[in-house]
Description:
Chain B is built from 22 helices and two strands. Chain B is mainly α and about 525 residues long. In chain C, about 55% of the residues are buried. The interface between B and C is large, with 64 and 52 residues.
Amino acid sequence: MFEIGIMHFVVLSVVVFAAGICTLLTKRNAIGILIGIELIMNAAGINFVAYNRYVWGGGGVGSLIDGQVFAIFIIVLAAAEAAIALAIFLNFYNTFSSIDVERADEMKG
Amino acid sequence: MDMPSLLNWMIFVPMIFGGLCLLAPSGEWAKRSALAGSIVTLVMSIVLLCNYNFDQGGVQFESSLVWIEAINVHYRTGLDGLSLPLVLLTTALSVLVVAAGWRIDKAAKAYNALYMLLLTGMLGVFLALDMFLFYVFFEISLLPMYFLIGVWGGPRKEYAAIKFFLYTLAGSICLLIVMLGLFLYTPNIDGANGKHLWTIVSSSELSLQSAEVRAVFGNGGLHEVFGKWAFWLTLVAFLIKLPAVPFHTWLPDAHVEAPTPISMVLAGVLLKMGGYAMMRITWPLFPDAAATFWVAVATIGVVSILYGALCAIAQTDWKKMVAYSSVSHMGYVTLGLAVLTRTGFDGAYFQMIAHGITSAMMFFLVGVVYDRAHHRDLNRFGGLWLTWPGYSGWAMVGFFAGMGLPGLCGFIGEIMVLLGTFEAAANFEHQVGLVYTFGILAASGVVLTAGYILWMFQRVYMGLPKPEYESFEPVRGREYAIMAILGIAAFVFGIVPVLIFNITDSTFESLTNMLRHGLGVLSVSGS
Amino acid sequence: MAPQQAELILTLMGMATLLPLASAFVMIVLTRRVMFKAAGWFATAVMAGSFVCALVSLVTWLGVPEADRKGLSLLKTIPWIPIPGTEAGHLYLGILVDNLTIAMMAMVTLISLLVHLYSIGYMNGDKRYNRFFAYLSLFTFSMLGIVISNSIMQLFVFWELVGLTSYLLIGFWFEKRGPQLACKKAFVMNRIGDVGFLVGFGILFYQLGGKLLLPAAGGASGMVEGQVVTMFEAIKALIEQDGHSITNPPLWLTAAGIGLFFGAIGKSAQFPLHTWLPDAMEGPTPVSSIVHSATMVAAGVYLTARIYPILTPAAHVFVAVIGLITLVIAACMALVMTDIKRVLAYSTISQLGYMILGLGAGAYAFALFHLVTHAFFKCCLFQCSGSVINAAHHEQDMRQYGGLAKKLPITMACYLVCTLAIAGASIPWTEFGISGFYSKDGIIAGTVSYGHALHDTFGAAANLFWLGPTVVAYITVFYMARSFALTFLGKPRNQKLFEHAHEAPWTMCVPQIVLAAMAILTAPFLMGFWQSLIVASEPQVAWIQGADHLAHGHAMHTTHVYLLNGLAWIIMLAAGIILYIPGMKISSKIAAIPGINLLYTWAYNKFYFDALYDTFVVGLGKLISMIAAVFDKYIVDGIVNLFGLLGKAAAFLVGAFDIHLIDGSVNGVAAAARSSGGLLRATHTGRVRGYVLMFFASAVLIVLAVVTTAMMFGA
């Protein structure tokens, strides 16, 4: 019988991560980049949860849930980050009348 | 107040008044403060004179404090026959110098404060009995002078000031080398008593110490070579200050650029530090070298006399002429010391006092005219005798005193040095011809002196009055007072020279006794 | 002599000397506001007091029998400069009174008094009238100081003061260029002589241990305080100790004598330092009459007389030769001068030459007697010339005069008397004449003996010693007759000048008359009196009297001299007057004769001494001083400045080193950081995607590297 194992989660995580990276690399829209970052973080979250299950076993009382805790932190972090990023983008928009990150090159060396 | 502390107060009282000058509400008050300071100092020095015991050869009113224990440096001061007349000259001249500077209004506070600092330095030099302390005061007197020339001077003041400073500093370095040498080579001289060679500046122990010193630095001593080098190094240090040819070129520049009162004090007192230090340090410490090298030193003296006078003849700048006359007159000091006779020593010393009076007067006389004419070109003057008969009368006294006319103070020093030179034939029996040659050459200086003084007198005072000088404002009472005081002093010391010799006699007795030891070495090696 | 008398004389001598000083001081201090008009009479009155002092002491002195006076010295010493290094202990000032002092004192105070009186008239109207009398009194003080000098030291002190006052008096009219140059020249030339004086002074000082008191040994008594060893005693002791004697003297003694005599050469205007005296005529005439004829220039003779005992035979020859040369050349120049005062000036030099020659030749008494007689007649001659100049509105050229006898009879008479006196007028071949006859012929007699004595040494040349003065005696009469004729006789050559001429006021005439009277009276009538002083003053130093050649010097008039000089004054006086009554007409023709014209030109140009000195002494002196000044400015100071420059250059090098190497390396680190930063700057594009790519690629590469490494080494 086909059983879902750790490898599947890893593959999923890699796919999500790759999608995130690709989004970062291709998108010029700041919102898009934000989404890409969300994807990358979620990929990391998947990995945390998956490896926690794989290392410590099923979820009975007393089992360790460090991975899950980290995943929750990541979600909270992502939310905070999204809030800050959106605030930046808002200012960005006010300045450049656009959210095209290509234009934000004034601090280049 | 006991005398030693009065003496120490005297050194530093001018400095206190100098501080008051800076705090004064206005320039006028600064001048008054400086005048008060110099008068207080003068009074103190007169009190010291009154309490001085003329018959006692050694140092009086001595005080000593440990200053830097590690190298045995003391703060040690005192008075003897060698320093007392010069101290009196300094304090008396100081009052006149402040009065002469009454019209200097440019930064009057700083000017008077610096002058007061200078006064402290000068008195310190004459009163210090520790070589280290002496060196410190020697340097202290340099700095105010540098600023006084450099700030209040004429068109080339910066050049003159820096030249004066560096030149004298070069001399100081020679002195410093000797001090280091003395420190290194004589650790054991009376070390147990807490004394040290640096206290040798005291003449009270001159004869006592000379034996010890000669054992180290004299001919055949442990450090004979150093002794000879040290003689020359100290000599150069003090010849620069004196100044003697060829170390004299700072003097004309400094004098020409310095304001009148500073020229007065420079010629009147600062040059005397050189002669004083030779008598105080060079000759007593290295009598053997002095006897060995007498020909060279006497040559420097004679050359200074003649060369200074020749240069004076050729000058068209009045002040420069007077400056070169100083070189010529100070040559007699060098010669008088070189020949190692008592008469020569007395003459050299008297010449310093006399020159202190006459040169100050001559510079002041030039200054009075310069203040009005704003130039010093001898060829452009004329007829001042008719324009200002009163001033010219005093000018006659001043310049003829410089010329060494009998009855005025310049004469005594010159004639005694000349006689002392001839007398030296007894000291140097194998070189009598040389002695007479020095005597004849020095005597011929009187012709050159008459030449430049009389030529100047003709060009400036004689002739018909020139219209451009007739509108001169008349000579002020203050100026008359300064001329009169100096002029009367020139008469008094010229007519009653014992006023000085009474003070110096007992001190010079021990000094010359010690030099005789040096000569003893010479005759032993000569026979 | 009783102590009270001695005390009195010393006090009076001191007073006589100090009174003129006091009056000069008063006049200078009170200035012109208080004392202008009164100055003349005030100074004259004080001078009269001084003369009375001298007179009283003279009378007191003469009260002592001559035998007692001979060799008697009264000495007052005041320690002046202590010289503890020597045997003497002090240099002294003070008073020395002996026969010579008394004679000189009387002479100088009398002449000074008369000149003061004369000046009241002559200087009337001068704007520095008061100042003139101050200087004149100051001069008298200095001169009297020389007269009473008790030591070489005091002699030198007053010697210099006389030089100063002479300077002030010659340069009295300093507005004009002539007096300016003349007074400077006089002082400087005197100082050249003083160098010799100083050298002689120095040698004696050393040899004698400072014992320089002048009283001649053998008679120093009276007021000598303490045990004072005089100079002559010291010398005697010294040379005997060394085994010397006067015939075999030590070299230093000759040198010292000649050295001191150099002072006399300067002051008495002897060859070669004579050129200042004619120029000194630029001063007011009263000055010429006292300073440059009677007293100051006589100071050199006086000095020579004072040091007479220490002059060795060689020094005597030197003195005599100088005197001989001087008297000859000065007489030649006096022949051709046209300025009345210059004629008298050269005449003075010539007469001083007689005195010096006389002293050199050993005719001590006659030389000093000539000093006294000359003082009177020459002072009178100068005063007469002053009266003439005054009358002629300051015209001094004799070619402009002529016939003034009518206008100035008193002056003419005085001038004539004095001309006869200087000519040595006498009744031929007898012993009767007026003053110059006795003194000058006495000197010539002395030179005759001296010439004989030196015949062995110098051969025929020794005859010059008497031939010179004899010939010059003739010349003297001639030039004096010339000046007399040109001035007073003949027809007026300048009518305007003649008409305005007038006799001088009585203040000027009286001194002239008194002096003329003295010129007659001094000899023969007062001769005994003067001789009792001067002959008695001849030094009584035992060792010097042993000398052979000097014994002849005491010879009195000899027939020899009578024969030579008896008619001289008549012949030459007549010749001079006849030749010059028509003015210069005849003489200019004579002067044009080839051969003579050459001599004339030479003499007229003063033998080119002035030109020579101007070129070689003054010019060279100035040149040397210029060279010295340039040397000083560019070489000596140049070296100093070079050191300064070297210091600066070194500082510059060090500065460059510091900036480029030391600071350079510090800055280099910063620059390296900067440039490497610049390299990396290119990667900072500001593009987010670029950063992401790089970040990702780097992460991959690091992982790969870690994995690869682990696989390669870890497995």
